[in-house]
Structure formats: structure tokens, C-alpha cells
Design a protein that fits this description.
Number of helices: 12
Largest sheet: 8 strands, parallel
Strand order of the largest sheet: 7-6-5-4-3-2-1-8
Shape: globular
Helix content: 40-55%
Strand content: 5-15%
Distance between the termini: 27 Å
Number of strands: 8
Length: about 325
């Protein structure tokens, strides 16, 4: 039985006043739907259906334009259009909407932050500067201060994903150092296998900040450390597994939670062995659900029919229902 996470969504406001960040639980980084044409143009018409599909699966949090959403492969205009489409969709589904605004030039980051705030989204997530990279907590803080000032009335989180950014600032130390320098800063997305660092971030400043663990294979391990919030790609196509891991931990059924994590990890490994994370996960979305989110955009590649068939058979051998 999926965990009832309806109480986990923060309340959507009708004015531009600063609000506390109250969301806890599972948030899904959504794919950006593309048409299967030469330019991989946006297929925004799918987004209302996508939102409803996830809402019916009790998924109450949406992250737009992240890594899974190929946000750094979109133009500023496309990122705005995608964020707008989701902002309109969640008016019906009442899901918490987080928009990732980083991963481009600073003027564009600030423009995207302002635009997202004008949409009254629930929160912002921001990658660091990707070329003139911050190397100290002070430099990272100064960068996020600029983003904060562009959208001062929206909760702001930092996106820590060193495997892509090569920004290796220790998140526990960073959060301990912040103090009150960024009034609307509320937490981080921690996408790393360094769980020790993630736990230090979770405990920083007397657990002042929300830490979303962004590793599909560490949900159970995070629960064992008291962590309660996760952003994981597999929530798109296998939400029940993550939901049930949280539910079993809440009920004290540790062995069952471990078994469910083993199943989720096997599925993630089976999918991702066929190529790039986003390339393979987007194929898995089509293979395991009725949602059509289209191909990936260059520089990512489209997986061959042979690979898709092989992946489907492997997933079927795990006991999952697939579309062959």
C-alpha cells in the first residue's frame, strides 16, 4: 500500500510573500517531453497528462528542468515554457513545484529565477556556476546570494551533483557556514553516493535545512539515518517501490524495507547498464508506463531498438510489467 503523502506538499500561496518550506517526502525529477522530430522540439501538450499520471500514483512533488529533465540542454525560452506548462498543470493536481534554474550563464540564471518566481512556483533549485566553479563555501554562498536576490520570495535550494559539476565543496561544512546570509535558503538536493557527507549535511545547523537525497539506491540507507526526503528518477516509473520503502520504515518493518530497496536497486542497475542515466531512464519510462515522453535531445543519443528490447526483457525477468 503506497504511503499517504498528501500531507507532505507545502501550501501554494496566492501572493508573493515569503513562505516556509514544508515539503517532505518523495519528489520526482520529471522528463522533458520532446517530439520525435529532427530538432527534438518541446511537446508541452503532454505535461497536463504527465502531471495527472503522477498525481494518481500519489506523487506530490515535481522537479522541472533538472538533470533528468535535460534542463541544461534547453534554451532559456524553452526552460521558461516548460516551467510555465508545469505551473499551469499543478494548479489542477496541487503538486509542489520546484524549478531548477542553474546550469547556464549567470544573467540567464537570474532571469530564470525571476521568471519562476513570477509563476509563483513553490521552490527553486540551483546548480553552481559550471565554468568558473566555486571552490570555497564563501564563493558558493556569494553565488547563491545573487540567485536569492533575483527571487527573494521563493524558497531556494542548492543542487549538489559533483559527478557532473566537479564542484566538491563539502555540503555539511557549507550548510554549517551559512548562518542567516541567504534568508530564503532552505536546503539542498544531495546527489552523491557519499552518504557520510549527506548525513553531515542533514544534521548541519541542528537539522535546520531540508536535504533531498538524490540517489535511487540509497533510499533505505537514508531512512536508516533519519532522512525523510528524496528526489529520484525511478519515482517516474516505479513510484510504489520508493513509497513503500518509506511506509515500511515508518511501520518499523526494516527487513521488508531492505527487500524493497533491493528490488529498486536491481531495477535501477538493470536500466542504467544500457547507457547514460537519462537516455536509459527515458526509455524505461516508456517501457514500464503508458506515458510517452519522447526521445532525448543531443548531446544525448536515442537508444537502438535492440537495446530497448533487451532492457524490456531484463525488466520483465525482474517481475516488472513491461510493454514489449
Amino acid at each position: 500500500m503506497p504511503i499517504d503523502s498528501s500531507h507532505l506538499s507545502s501550501e501554494r500561496t496566492t501572493n508573493m510573500t515569503k513562505t516556509a518550506f514544508t515539503f517532505r517526502g518523495l519528489m520526482v525529477p520529471v522528463f522533458t517531453p520532446f517530439n520525435n522530430d529532427s530538432q527534438r522540439t518541446l511537446n508541452l501538450a503532454v505535461i497536463p497528462q504527465y502531471a495527472e499520471f503522477l498525481a494518481k500514483k500519489n506523487v506530490t512533488g515535481i522537479l522541472v528542468n533538472g538533470t533528468t529533465g535535460e534542463g541544461t540542454s534547453l534554451t532559456v525560452a524553452e526552460r521558461k515554457a516548460t516551467a510555465t506548462a508545469w505551473a499551469n498543470a499543478v494548479k489542477t493536481t496541487k503538486q509542489h513545484l520546484m524549478v531548477q534554474v542553474g546550469g547556464t550563464t549567470l544573467p540567464d540564471v537570474l532571469e530564470l529565477a525571476k521568471h519562476a518566481e513570477s509563476l509563483k512556483v513553490d521552490s527553486l533549485l540551483c546548480l553552481p556556476e559550471l565554468y568558473f566553479k566555486p571552490t570555497t563555501t564563501s564563493q558558493l554562498t556569494e553565488y547563491l546570494e545573487l540567485v536569492s536576490k533575483a527571487a527573494p520570495n521563493t524558497p531556494l535550494l542548492y543542487y549538489h551533483i559533483p559527478m557532473f559539476t566537479n564542484v566538491n565543496i563539502h555540503m555539511g561544512q557549507f550548510l554549517e557556514s551559512l548562518g542567516d546570509r541567504i534568508p530564503n535558503f532552505v536546503g539542498i538536493k544531495f546527489t552523491s553516493s557519499n552518504l557520510d557527507e549527506g548525513i553531515q549535511a542533514f544534521n548541519a545547523a541542528n537539522k535546520k535545512y531540508t536535504v533531498f537525497l538524490g540517489n535511487d539506491q540509497l533510499v533505505n540507507a537514508g531512512c536508516a539515518q533519519g532522512m525523510d526526503s528524496y528526489i529520484a528518477t525511478t519515482i517516474n516509473m516505479l513510484p510504489e517501490l520508493s513509497q513503500e520503502i518509506l511506509a515500511q520504515w515508518k511501520a518499523g518493518n526494516i527487513v521488508k524495507a531492505r527487500e524493497l530497496q533491493d528490488m529498486l536497486s536491481k531495477a535501477a542497475i538493470t536500466i542504467s547498464k544500457y547507457g547514460n542515466w537519462v537516455e536509459t531512464m527515458k526509455v524505461a519510462m516508456t517501457t514500464l508506463t503508458n506515458m510517452e515522453v519522447g526521445p532525448t535531445r543531443r548531446p544525448l543519443v536515442t537508444l537502438s531498438t535492440e537495446i530497448r528490447t533487451s532492457m524490456a526483457k531484463d525488466l520483465q525477468n525482474l517481475g516488472l510489467q513491461v510493454k514489449l
